[in-house]
Amino acid sequence: MKRSLKSFVGRSLFVGLFFGAFLGARASVDDAQSFALQAAEPYVKEGFQVREDYWGGDLGIGEKKAVRQQLFKGNEYWFWMGTEVERAKVSVHVYDSEGKLAEQTDGWEKGHFAAAHIIPKATGSYFIIVAVEESAEERTHWALVYGFR
Amino acid sequence: MTLFVKYLHITAVALTGLTLGAQASQAPQHIDVKQFSRKVEDVVVPLPNEVFGALNKLGSVNWKDYVRSNRGNNFTERPRIALILGSVIADGFIAVQAKDAPAVKDIGQRVLTLSKAIGVGNSITPHAKAIIESADKNKWDNVRAELDRTQNSVQQAMNEVHDQQLSQLVSLGGWLRGTEVLTSVVTKNFSAGGAELLHQPDLLTYFQDKLQAMPEFNMQLLKDIHGALVEVKPLIDVGSQHISPESVRKINEITTRLDSAIVTKE
Lengths: 149, 266
What we know:
The structure holds two protein chains of two kinds.
Chain A: E1 2-3, H1 8-21, H2 29-44, E2 49-50, E3 54-60, E4 64-71, E5 77-82, E6 89-95, E7 108-110, E8 113-118, E9 124-134, E10 139-148
Antiparallel strand pairs in A: 1-3, 2-10, 3-10, 4-9, 5-8, 5-10, 6-9, 7-8
Chain B: H1 3-20, H2 48-56, H3 78-97, H4 101-117, H5 121-136, H6 140-160, H7 164-188, H8 192-196, H9 201-212, H10 220-236, H11 245-262
């Protein structure tokens, strides 16, 4: 499920190409990842370093997936989720290792983009729960990237 | 302004507006984590500078004390080269923390040499060039991003030729060096907050599992690393307790020993 990306600029270029010429082509997790990066873009200017690695896969409507990530107290993290299915609704939330909601209140969801913000109170493993809430597709590709500062 | 740059600006502006007008759905305050697998897979191993950044916020660190750029002798064993490569990339992040441009440039060259030795040099050349150019201009954020891209490209190139295990060793090499430096900094000036950064039991389990799944690499070094991780695990897997100064010192001894073993011929 874990994926890699070539480069942020390369992917941004890919997003451009996607809008211009790729709409009718076969969708993939890579496309979803381009949208996740698109959601991350404004935060780079605020000093967040967006990781090259990312998670991805596909989910049915109402299906959830958990990924675990080591987070460090003292840092601030954003997780950005995206899908190429434009009429889909996705969500992402962060829980601590005990299952308690651990995110800040300024997370957001807008159609096929969603983001969660966490300033960890403790160093350790956290659960990031991604879900496809609505979609016109039976299975919806998703990708999750994260950044820290 | 090119059309592409304009496009990116429009996208950024649109998304900034989007975040202002969007709110997250009501998420449950609590979930049953037992329903999710306890097995740690698909891990994105944190970059050394994620830890270093958190450490910096606890107090100033004299990063120059930890800069080195003389790693990587002539080895032929690919697992060892992969470990050294991860370690050298971690050294790159340390040199960036110290804003030591000559060391960063030297490390950029070294990363390229090691990548060539392991057969993935072609994908690294542009990154090494970008590291050196950015260091020349003191563009430290660019160097950090490029080091992440370098590690990612190395691992992607390895994965493409079904060398996932070597790819995992690159991550492990970086983690070991990062942990060695973290424990050294915290040993010198102990704080509970600094020690807490070692609380990474799931990552340790992840690396242990990966090492166990590499029987084809019948190397004493890998067995030693696995044994060392077994030693470290109880020292950091302390639940809500504090990690003691003695534990930090012991982990530093272990990781320093391994760091030396990685560049010592058997």
